Amino acid sequence: MPRTQRVDAQANRGRILDVAEEVFGASGAAASTEEVARRAGVGIATVFRHFPTKAALLQAVLVRRYDRLREQAEALLGAEDPGSAFRDFFRHLVADAATKIAIGEALLHAGGDSDGEAAQASNGLRRAVGALLQRAQRAGAVRDDVELPEVYALLVAMSRLATDAEVTARALEIVFDGLAEVTGGGRRTVRP
Amino acid sequence: MPRTQRVDAQANRGRILDVAEEVFGASGAAASTEEVARRAGVGIATVFRHFPTKAALLQAVLVRRYDRLREQAEALLGAEDPGSAFRDFFRHLVADAATKIAIGEALLHAGGDSDGEAAQASNGLRRAVGALLQRAQRAGAVRDDVELPEVYALLVAMSRLATDAEVTARALEIVFDGLAEVTGGGRRTVRP
Predict the structure, then answer these.
(1) What is the average pLDDT across A49-74?
(2) Whole-number Cα distances in Å, B111 to A125, B54, B55, B119
(3) Deepest in the core among A162, A188, B25, B119, taking most CB within 10 A?
(4) How many distinct structural domains can be found in chain A?
(5) Is A172 part of any domain?
(6) Entry's PANTHER family (chains A, B) (predicted)?
(7) Mutate to test the interface with B, among A86, A177, A189, A191 (most CBs of B within 10 A)
(8) How far apart are alpha carbons A121 and A125 in whole angstroms?
(9) How confident is the model at residue A35 (pLDDT cuts 50, 70, 90)?
(10) For chain A, how far is it from start to end, CA to CA, in angstroms?
(11) Do the Cβ atoms of B178 and A182 come within 8 Å?
């Protein structure tokens, strides 16, 4: 393939993924590959040349999304205030979760599974969150008797909450207080 | 209907509900009314006399369940340690949630909805949790700048968590710490 055609193909692939993320993120399993093609301004054959099945397209959308979030987390590892960086990214993931869940459901509906590449990319994100957590703990901003499993469990739990943003924000403050290193007494012990 | 027949009918109804709660709580939408009849030792006609549709049966199971949990919460309003009572009941609801979710999914699958009677019973439970929360706040065991919406949001979030019991228990301790009234500084403000 000549270079310009390769560049075009790459641009098409990127645009298809952008549109697919938006369309499936908003409508989940109800969205169609045809709609993605139309809104991306390409023929349906072009979509299927890049992604032979709807499941393959959705898998690629999820992988790219996890990779992007992981990169964002990694960029925050250099932030000045490790406690704020950890909390801000936690909030960001929770706010972002509804579209992620919609895409994941569309993938299941299309007969795909969330194992394989998407699971690997998801683990990469989890590790990056773990690094943010450790950095916040070393800075004394997060208590050091908690570990990633319970923190990620809270993140997943809060991500699935479909309530209004204000209530979610308040619930998150409670969680962050529970995670905070405090000087006063009366603290419970998460990991003795 | 003569009195003994009425008593028998009432006993059958109770047994059908007991079995249905167990069967649908374990298997969700995959369970059948036939299995309920068989395990309750009654004919399928008897089940349908009490509950004309599968949805009606599941609705009745959910209502009874919410009512029972509400009564348990109300009984705890007399507990000596209001903080422990609140946390114990919170834990109890989270531990109990998987079967509740399975029954709710079976109800949706059977074409029923969770409005109506079940929603009313669910609101009764929510109010009882609110009373436990207020009592814990008055006793100084739970911070008084939180209100029921964010606390219930946390309860719902933790209830949907399908992770192992130990991780859930640790995540709950973090939440309880976030809810605790603490004397030290550095506390965030949930409701200014």
Answers:
(1) 95
(2) 38, 9, 7, 16
(3) B25
(4) 1
(5) yes
(6) HTH-TYPE TRANSCRIPTIONAL REGULATOR BETI (PTHR30055:SF234), HTH-TYPE TRANSCRIPTIONAL REGULATOR RUTR (PTHR30055)
(7) A177
(8) 7
(9) very high
(10) 61
(11) no
